[in-house]
């Protein structure tokens, strides 16, 4: 029996705080006109509460995707979080999401391929599903790059935004779903877009902080040239791999970095109709790994995606990396019955209680082990005292 991997759930979340170009013009030497004409961006959402982070955005997107799919978190076999701004170097942000949504059967890991990461994640999920190693996989793209940009560097701070998007891919017998992918990398361009410090090569120190090495550094023009080339090439290649032509493609959802990159690659080089290219970067900026799933969620909500449609996702990013996937949209999932909506409302608080219980149990066990070790020490000292007394 053939197995296909279909997208059966999707969702997104962006933080509430909106920062407009005019707001940025108050902190760096820039203007709304410059940012709009050079990038297409008008505003972006950024986290502004201390308790917000990549995992909190990812959790909201994950819950939305589960509700759309009508699936319980326990149906997930694996959670992949593609991100360049994880909560920590470790543990994986995916594990924090796994615990928060109560996906108790799921494995979880982070994937680092910068802005191409979400499409890389989908390709991994597809491979596991069609090979029978997993039935249901959640792929999340989530970022809080606002925590990594230098807010005094106008070359980078105007470009990025925060947000998260998620899809659930599931094994189905009907043909369609994920049809082809192209994954690429060219590490010779690693220096063009990088966060130099905080890893093993340049660990955090007073000097790295003083030099601003914990902020994103980018050669914008070089990245621009690379992006316009690979976006067109990867799109052409993935369509060929799927055995289709560009005329068969109803929608392209490109990585939302810059309207000029999208126009000069997909639209001009491929001569693809602009009305069949989805763009929402004017409202979100470049949300890196989150940009494609956020755009997909909005495209579906706006009725731009119909069952049977062929959709291309194509992205590029630091690494340098690039990735494209071609999917055939699955039939829509049925509306959720009211009882299931109620179930979701009780499930998340319940999974928090269970997580708290597991933590408590671990602490009690550790305390009991400590007592046991101490009492063994006491026993040993008693023995040696007895030995001394008898001697
Ligand atoms: N406001 C005003 N001026 C700015 C500015 C800003 N926010 N940022 C840069 N400038 C200035 C530059 O300093 C430069 O001035 P100079 O000529 O005196 O040196 C001038 O604008 C033009 O810079 P340039 O780099 O040629 O602009 P550009 O047309 O290439 O646009 C980017 C700059 C960053 C928008 C563009 O190169 C880009 O989008 N690159 C890709 C970046 C990207 O997508 N990164 C994420 C990858 S996932």
Task: Outline the structure in words.
With 391 residues, the chain is an alpha/beta fold. It has two domains: 4-189 and 222-328, 3-Layer(aba) Sandwich (Peroxisomal Thiolase, Chain A, domain 1), CATH 3.40.47; 350-391. It is 41% helix and 20% strand. It is built from twelve helices and 13 strands. It has a five-stranded mixed sheet with strand order 1-7-6-4-5, with helices on both faces. A four-stranded mixed sheet has the order 8-13-12-11, with helices on both faces. Strands 2-3 form a two-stranded antiparallel sheet. A hairpin with a 3-residue loop joins strand 12 (310-317) and strand 13 (321-328). Helix 3 (54-69) packs across helix 4 (93-101) and helix 8 (220-241) crosses helix 9 (259-269). The longest helix has 53 residues, at 338-390. It is globular. It starts with a strand and ends with a helix. The structure holds coenzyme A.
Task: Map the helices and strands.
Layout: E1 4-13, E2 18-20, H1 21-25, H2 32-39, E3 43-45, H3 54-69, E4 78-82, H4 93-101, E5 107-111, H5 117-130, E6 136-143, H6 154-157, E7 163-172, E8 177-185, E9 193-194, H7 206-210, E10 217-218, H8 220-241, E11 251-254, H9 259-269, H10 281-284, H11 291-301, E12 310-317, E13 321-328, H12 338-390
Parallel strand pairs: 4-5, 4-6, 11-12
Antiparallel strand pairs: 1-7, 2-3, 6-7, 8-13, 9-10, 12-13
Helix pairs in contact: 3-4, 8-9
The site of coenzyme A has 21 residues, from helix 2, helix 6 and helix 8.
